[in-house]
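Researcher: Next sequence.
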Amino acid sequence: MEKFNFATAWIFASVTAEGGVDLPMLIGTADSLNHAIPTVGEISRSLKALHICGLVEIADGRIQLTDHGRTVADDGFGRRGGRFSIPDNMRKSLDAATHPTIETKPDLSFVTDETVSAAFQEYRKMLGT
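Model: Next structure:
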C-alpha cells in the first residue's frame, strides 16, 4: 500500500537541490517535472508530511533535505525512466523506505497564497515571460 501520494512525491522531487530550495525554485522545479504549478495546499501538506518523516528540514523559508532525505532521493533518482517519471520514482522510493517520526511541527508560515503567488511571479521572471 502506498504511503505517499503523487503530490508529496512531486514536491519531494522538487526540493532535492544541493543547498536546499526556496519557493520560487520549488515552483520552477515542480513545473519542470510535471508541467504544473503546485497549489498552496499541495505545498504545505507535502512539506508537513516530508518533515514529519524526517526527510526535510525547513528554516527561514528554505527547504533542505536531511541526510535521510538525500538517501531516499538518491534512490529515486537511481530508478529507470526519464524526467517525467521522477515523481513516480520518488514515490516508490518514499514508500519503500523506513522513515523516522519527527515530533516537531515545521514552520510553514511562509507558504501562503500571497507568498506562493509572488514566488510564481519570480519564477516567471526567471523564465523571461
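Model: The chain has one domain: 6-127. Helices lie at 6-14, 23-34, 40-52, 67-77, 86-96, 113-127.
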